[in-house]
Give the backbone structure.
Amino acid sequence: MKGIVFSEFLELVDEEFSMETCEQVLEMSDLPSGGAYTAIGTYDPQEMRTLLGNLHEVTGVPVPDLLQTFGRYLFRFFVTSFPMFFEGVSSTFEFLPRVHEYVHVEVRKLYPDASLPTFACEGPVDGVMTMSYRSQSDLPDLAEGLIQGCIEHYDEPLQSTMERVGGDPPETIFTIGPK
Ligand code: HEM
């Protein structure tokens, strides 16, 4: 997992909880990297699971909720840090298919060792789009948070629901439609 994801995660903990919480979680985690991440470095994804588990211990917030909050935060970060991906795109249904077809393709060029998911979008049909997600990392709650972040960014009256389908790696289907 890229260092940029870890740095943003620690920023989120600082902002949503406190600097003390962030320090406490880092201390408890005893990470091989020591918790010093560079944006282009690549780190063991297990470190993220450790950080999430310990943040849950400290705050009592369930891990899926933490991942969703993180996804929404990460989307806002992407909007400010990678404005080129948003140029000329004016809606959630326009943006979501571009994640797999364009955004993550460019991410792969920037970070050849990035671990990225597979997405397949269908629709919209009658105002409803489906997005199938599969990844070795299998982080559907993070994906849902990113989708919610996208809906908030375009300020649209949409909501997403998620259904686990199974398989290896497991498939998750997001249905994005009117509220
Ligand atoms: C709704 C929009 C998006 C969704 C649902 C999404 C989904 C995801 C998910 C779930 C991951 C975690 C890795 C995995 O599951 O395999 C990921 C990784 C990543 N995504 Fe996206 N993404 C979105 C938009 C973006 C945008 C706009 C950028 C802008 C650059 C971006 C850049 C990245 C990067 C850098 C990683 C980290 C790869 C790594 O750690 O190796 N994504 N994305």
Q: What stands out?
A: The chain is about 50% helix and 20% strand.
